[in-house]
Structure formats: C-alpha cells, structure tokens
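B., you asked whether I could sanity-check this one before it goes into the benchmark set. Here's the sequence:
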Amino acid sequence: MRSTRAVFRRLLPAVACAAAVLAARRAPAQDSTVVHALRRIFASRDFAPERFGPARWLDGDAYTTLEPSAEVQGAMDIVRYRAATGSRDVLVSARRLVPPGAATALEVEDYAWSADGARLLVFTNSRKVCATTRAATTGCSTWAAAPCAGWAGPVRRSRR
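And here's what the prediction gave me:
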C-alpha cells in the first residue's frame, strides 16, 4: 500500500499542470506568469522534496550519506554513520569539493567509493537530454575523482 505522501508526490505535478492550464484559459494576459510557474515547478528545485541519500554501505558496519554542510552554505558534506553506535563523522567536507578556480562546491548528485575506500567518484553537473524522462542522464555531466585519505589536493574533473 502506498503512503499518502508518495501518492501526493506523484499527483502534485499533474494537479499543478491542470491548474496552470485552467488559469491560462481564464486569463490569457497572464501567459508569462503561467510559464514562469511551470518553469519553477518542473525546471527548478523550488518545489523539490527533501531527500535522503544517496547512501552507500562501507565495510558492512557503516554507511555514508549526504547532509547539508555546516561550513559551506548550500553545499553537502559526505557523512559516515556507524550502524551499531549511530556515531557520526564528516568524511568529505563540502570545502574539499570546491574545484580549483571555483567559488562553490560541486553539487553532489551521486557518488561511489573505490573498493578500498581511498577514492571517491562524484557525479555532478547533469542535465536532462530527453524531455520524456525526469531522470538526469550521463550524456551531459561531470564526474569528479578525489582521493580521500589525507587528501588536500584539487578535485580532478572529467566532462563527458
């Protein structure tokens, strides 16, 4: 059985579109307002729900996830939680995800750890390439690789 919240999330875009279409029919002079509202709904993150993750298990006793950074406004830290104790520590601060010459940290959309946990691969800067899918694709994105243990060097970027 689906939760009410999940059903609401799925119905919200359809209801918003229907309301926008009805509003456009009633007041053609407000077309730019409707277009602006539709852009805010579908092309921005203004109405995006809060999310958890992505989460990754490490060594079976801990997992990492993304959390808003206390140090860098609007950026995310990669944080480790120990499953048994619930202890929390920041593994990769958002400060370390600022590429050379950039003013802001990478927007982490996904990430993967190397098998030994010494390197991190960050998926960022994706764009939709097909209007029929809501998922981002790797066709226009950036992967950034960073060594983690004792790392103080720059983020290396690879644009696809």
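One thing to flag: Confidence is low (pLDDT under 50) at residues 149-154. Otherwise nothing jumped out at me.
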